[in-house]
Inverse folding.
């Protein structure tokens, strides 16, 4: 009790010490020896024999549970005239005594336990004497204690995961059958109790047990939600008869459930348990140069348990002494230049934070803090607000535990300019009290929200710390009263409970009032009551002492009644003084009738005090209702139990605050009639659904809806209005608009889609793609696409499906000007439909690859000139690509398909460049290319990139053949081609295209043709294995690989069957980059060309982002800020052929990409290309291979 004076913790503790009563000193205390030894317990109401030979002065240890009723007797069997005395374990307090209530010579004690722990029963001869005669003792449990709090999986005790095993004692006394089926090991017969922990960043957790009065137990571990658990491991006898488990490969941040029960349910009592993270892996962000990247507006899970602090900067000045176990984060400052850093504790007791800028090798400290807010009281969690950052610049965050503390936490990074009050944690966002009872689950309030609301200058406390804020709208005049009990306390716990305090103001109504701004300046204005005692059980009572049913040890913890009037509005701040991991419950029922409202507000705030069940109104502040179509839901981060939405439920608006979480398991449905805003976490199964089905008006999708916050199915069902997407969204399931009035507007945002796209009515129901909208198919199974009953033009479509691909149920159309189709992974199967690309740009469609192409009909609009890729294929031949280079034409678009042969057309039997195509056509099928009009007006080149063929053996020449309807022929000009890339130039008209083959022996078998830059010029060298009718060689050079000039001629050998070498020095190379080809001319004037090679002179290489250049073995690239975006690395030659998909690459802490595969390349000039995770090219550079 403060009596109007500020009361400090030490003064309160002093009063407590002075008021403790002396222990009762009466009856017997002649303790001689603990016999029989061991810890006894019982769950049976039948008498259990302890011993038949206890001497006077012997005592035994018994385990009891609060709320249970127990009996001990010396009335049965033979023995001396006895008396029995029940003591606490410390032998300081006598709990009960009897000596003559049976047979006038002996005693029976009946005692109800008011705490959980150990008691000692002492037997003495009459007169408190000791002796060496035998006497019988019995005990039993008359009635069981109430079930423990962790009696079922939905109410587990949360375990803190640190780097060492710290045993705690737990009991199964009073436990019942949780209803779960038996575990995969041991024998189950009820009485299971439950624990949970959050998986640390390493994914490794060890669990150990020690025997107590329970000597044989079983341990099982589960994942999932408490209503839908899946066993992942089980153990029975790893430690004698007690279990132990070592778990690895767990998902960091996931909640794991532990189940413990006595083997066959035969033992009731206590045991010791611990769970810890073995330090086998130092976290990646152990040092600043490997800092984990944080996006402004995001929350990350962190763990200091295995960090070493080696190489860290010196300790910031505001930090405490102790071992350094820092972890590091990196971010880019927002445009506002203002940020807020906050930690939310899980297993770590307290944190401290620091902010740095500059190089990771020489960081400069900007600021540091240990507490939750500047000017607030001491807290375990930390926050740091900082302004004047340079937008876009990189900064570093350092997190450590105070002293030697290590453990887990969440770190949040926010734009201070956009930061709003946190519901229930800040003065301006209190939770409305709508019932007479409120429960807050463990760990209770932590930190001070986003705002430090008051300091230590004008209340009885030491400033705001670990606070929860509540508003009471007074419904009738009378006395306002309440009782607050921590979750580990009771009306008689007397100081063993967590320390809670409170401050009460009036913010509206009669008499002096205040508001949040005034409180921050002078918290004494409008102050009605304040208590800061060292006890945790606290509140307001009629006389200011402990109310009825509470121990008088709490007299100093209660304040006198507060008289209020109808219409007053009260503001209550509840403070978790020590930052303990225990929540609390408040009972307002002692207030005069009607003072505390029992209404059903339109906005419900999740309290989660009872369980994680969405459909239990006690978890919504005991407001008697749950969210529905007219009631909105707010989920704040202050909840110990975050909601699990099972089944089908409704809400108007749903707002998930930063640090909060909602779980929507498999098959569940949430029907929203307003907006969805997620600033925290949505953990949603792929087959769970969110329905946006308000009949009228506009609905919004806002916040973080990607990655771990991806939603399941999104279903739009509206009679009017529209659903506006205000952010990037990832949908693991289907996106569906159900009818012609169900309108969805993407507003140019990106949609990641893992399931089907089912649209009702084209652009009527799927709108707003604009010039920036993207639809990315990223599923793992086949995805269907249906544009609906009318035409829908999409902007950018990316196919990155790791399964079969995308199946069309309608045309898929890409819009003009900005539209684009990127094929990364997965096949588009058109069936009888089309992929229709209206954008004329050649960049509107990429080359595709072996895993991603169009199986069916591809339509591409074209402009006047340019090179166009047509990545098509069929079910038997797979990926086949045709490239068309248009020089002139008068049509709008080309339609391209690829088909397998019904029957191979056989040998062409036509000659070209002295070669007769005398073999069957390549067996991978044919392309059909048609123009929408004037097909004969085109002048073009064509290149066929052949894949999946099986009859090229024995062929030495290949050429593009064409069928215009009157048979296969050779049209246009030939160029020497390899089987994989066949080209023809100067064609007109479109039709069918395939690859002809010839077996004619080459006049010259060219083994190699290469060039190198020398001081005197460029040296060209080639080697022949044999020569037939070879008249001479002509070396031709070019600076653009198109227009070649003769450099010189060299006589051939005529006829030769041995290896011959040739070389020519080009003394006057015309450019830094020179292209060369070799022309071989026969005696009859026929000729062939070699492949084109490139020689690049070293002095022309200026780009230092790639080195060494030229390269022999390992190539290094400075990838800078794109280091975290790398999805694919490929190397291609000068004509665009991919020669290597790089599999062996890695990046170091300086963002340098190391490629070791280049040693496999032949000498020449190449290009390296880097694509990000959605297939976009983010880097391209040229290099030389020696």
């Amino acid at each position: 009790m403060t009596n109007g004076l500020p009361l400090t913790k030490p003064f309160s503790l002093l009063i407590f010490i002075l008021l403790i009563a002396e222990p009762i000193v009466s009856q017997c205390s002649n303790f001689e020896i603990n016999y029989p030894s061991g810890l006894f317990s019982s769950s049976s109401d039948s008498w259990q024999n302890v011993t038949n030979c206890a001497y006077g002065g012997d005592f035994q240890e018994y385990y009891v549970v609060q709320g249970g009723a127990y009996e001990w007797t010396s009335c049965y069997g033979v023995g001396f005239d006895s008396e029995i005395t029940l003591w606490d374990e410390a032998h300081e307090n006598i709990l009960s005594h009897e000596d003559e209530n049976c047979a006038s010579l002996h005693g029976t004690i009946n005692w109800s336990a008011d705490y959980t722990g150990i008691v000692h029963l002492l037997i003495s001869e009459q007169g408190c004497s000791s002796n060496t005669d035998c006497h019988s003792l019995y005990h039993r449990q008359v009635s069981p204690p109430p079930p423990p709090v962790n009696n079922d999986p939905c109410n587990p005790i949360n375990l803190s995961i640190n780097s060492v095993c710290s045993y705690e004692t737990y009991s199964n006394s009073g436990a019942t059958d949780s209803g779960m089926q038996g575990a995969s090991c041991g024998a189950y017969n009820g009485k299971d109790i439950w624990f949970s922990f959050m998986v640390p960043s390493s994914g490794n957790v060890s669990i150990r047990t020690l025997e107590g009065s329970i000597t044989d137990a079983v341990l099982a571990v589960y994942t999932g939600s408490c209503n839908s658990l899946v066993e992942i491991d089980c153990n029975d006898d790893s430690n004698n008869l007690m279990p132990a488990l070592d778990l690895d490969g767990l998902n960091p941040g996931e909640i794991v459930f532990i189940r413990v029960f006595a083997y066959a349910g035969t033992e009731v009592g206590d045991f010791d348990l611990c769970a810890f993270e073995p330090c086998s892996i130092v976290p990646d962000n152990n040092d600043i140069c490997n800092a984990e990247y944080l996006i402004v507006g995001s929350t990350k899970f962190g763990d200091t348990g295995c960090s070493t602090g080696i190489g860290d900067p010196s300790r910031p000045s505001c930090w405490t002494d102790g071992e350094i176990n820092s972890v590091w984060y990196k971010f880019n400052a927002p445009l506002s230049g203002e940020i807020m850093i906050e930690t939310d504790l899980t297993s770590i007791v307290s944190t401290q934070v620091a902010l740095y800028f500059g190089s990771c090798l020489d960081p400069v400290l900007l600021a540091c803090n240990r507490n939750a807010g500047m000017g607030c009281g001491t807290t375990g969690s930390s926050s740091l607000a900082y302004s004047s950052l340079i937008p876009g610049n990189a900064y570093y965050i350092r997190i450590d535990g105070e002293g030697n503390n290590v453990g887990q936490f969440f770190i949040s990074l926010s734009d201070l300019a956009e930061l709003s009050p946190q519901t229930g944690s800040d003065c301006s966002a209190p939770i409305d009290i709508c019932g007479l009872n409120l429960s807050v689950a463990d760990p209770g309030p932590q930190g001070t929200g986003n705002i430090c609301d008051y300091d230590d200058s004008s209340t009885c406390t030491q400033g705001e710390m670990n606070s929860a804020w509540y508003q009471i709208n007074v419904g009738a005049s009378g006395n306002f009263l309440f009782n607050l009990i921590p979750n580990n306390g009771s009306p008689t716990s007397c100081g063993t409970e967590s320390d809670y305090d409170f401050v009460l103001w009036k913010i509206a109504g009669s008499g002096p009032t205040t508001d949040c701004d005034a409180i921050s300046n002078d918290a004494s204005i409008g102050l009605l009551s304040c208590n800061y005692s060292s006890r945790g059980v606290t509140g307001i009572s009629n006389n200011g002492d402990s109310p009825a049913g509470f121990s008088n040890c709490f007299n100093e913890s209660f304040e006198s009644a507060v008289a209020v009037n109808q219409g007053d509005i009260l503001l209550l701040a509840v403070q978790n003084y020590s930052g303990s991991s225990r929540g609390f419950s408040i009972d307002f029922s002692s207030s005069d009738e009607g003072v505390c409202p029992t209404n059903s507000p339109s906005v419900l705030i999740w309290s989660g005090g009872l369980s994680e069940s969405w459909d239990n109104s006690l978890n919504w502040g005991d407001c008697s209702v749950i969210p529905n179509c007219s009631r909105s839901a707010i989920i704040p981060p202050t909840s110990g139990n975050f909601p699990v939405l099972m089944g089908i439920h409704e809400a108007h608006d749903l707002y998930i605050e930063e640090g909060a979480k909602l779980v929507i398991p498999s098959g569940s449905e949430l029907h929203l009639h307003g907006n969805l805003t997620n600033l925290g976490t949505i953990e949603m199964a792929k087959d769970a659904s969110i329905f946006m089905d308000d009949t009228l008006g506009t609905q919004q999708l806002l916040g973080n809806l990607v990655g771990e916050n991806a939603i399941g199915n999104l279903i739009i069902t509206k009679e009017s209005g529209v659903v506006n997407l205000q952010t990037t969204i990832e949908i693991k399931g289907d996106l569906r608009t159900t009818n012609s009035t169900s309108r969805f507007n993407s507003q140019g945002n990106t949609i990641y889609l893992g399931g089907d796209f089912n649209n009702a009515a084209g652009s009527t129901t799927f709108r707003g793609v604009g010039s920036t909208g993207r639809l990315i198919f990223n599923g793992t199974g086949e995805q269907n696409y249906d544009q609906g009953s009318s035409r829908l033009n999409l902007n950018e479509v990316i196919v990155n499906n790791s399964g079969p691909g995308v199946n069309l149920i309608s045309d898929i159309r890409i819009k003009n000007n900005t539209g684009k189709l990127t094929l990364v992974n997965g096949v588009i199967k058109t069936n009888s439909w089309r992929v229709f690309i209206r954008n004329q740009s050649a960049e509107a469609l990429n080359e595709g690859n072996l895993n991603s192409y169009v199986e069916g009909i591809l339509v591409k609009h074209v402009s006047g000139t340019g090179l166009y890729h047509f990545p098509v294929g069929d079910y038997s031949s797979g990926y086949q690509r045709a490239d068309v280079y248009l020089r002139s034409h008068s049509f709008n678009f080309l339609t391209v398909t690829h088909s397998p042969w019904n029957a191979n057309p056989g040998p062409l039997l036509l000659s070209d460049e002295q070669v007769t195509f005398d073999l069957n056509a390549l067996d991978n099928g044919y392309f059909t290319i048609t123009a929408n009009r004037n097909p004969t007006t085109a002048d073009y080149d064509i290149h066929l990139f052949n894949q999946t063929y099986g009859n090229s053996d024995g062929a030495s020449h290949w050429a593009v053949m064409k069928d215009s309807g009157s048979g296969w022929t050779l049209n246009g000009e030939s160029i020497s081609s390899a089987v994989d890339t066949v080209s023809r130039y100067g064609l007109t008209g479109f039709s069918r295209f395939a690859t002809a083959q010839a077996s004619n022996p080459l006049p010259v078998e060219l083994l190699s043709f290469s060039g190198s830059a020398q001081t005197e010029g460029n040296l060209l060298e080639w080697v022949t294995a044999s020569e037939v009718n070879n008249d001479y060689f002509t070396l031709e050079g070019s600076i653009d690989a198109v227009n070649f000039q003769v450099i010189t001629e060299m006589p051939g050998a005529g006829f030769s069957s041995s290896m011959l070498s040739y070389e020519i020095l080009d003394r006057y190379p015309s450019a830094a980059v020179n292209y060369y080809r070799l022309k071989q001319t026969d005696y009859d004037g026929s000729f062939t060309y070699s492949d084109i090679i490139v020689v690049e002179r070293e002095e022309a290489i200026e780009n230092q982002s790639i080195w060494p250049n030229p390269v022999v073995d390992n190539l290094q690239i400075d990838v800078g800020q794109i280091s975290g975006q790398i999805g694919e690395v490929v190397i291609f030659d000068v004509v665009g052929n991919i020669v290597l998909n790089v599999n062996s690459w890695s990046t170091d802490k300086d963002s340098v990409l190391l490629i070791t595969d280049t040693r496999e390349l032949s000498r020449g000039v190449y290009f390296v290309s880097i694509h990000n995770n959605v297939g976009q090219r983010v880097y391209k550079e040229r290099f030389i291979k020696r």
Residues 33-143 form a domain with the Jelly Rolls fold (CATH 2.60.120.380). The longest strand covers residues 1018-1038. Confidence is low (pLDDT under 50) at residues 1-26, 1099-1104. The chain has three helices and 91 strands.
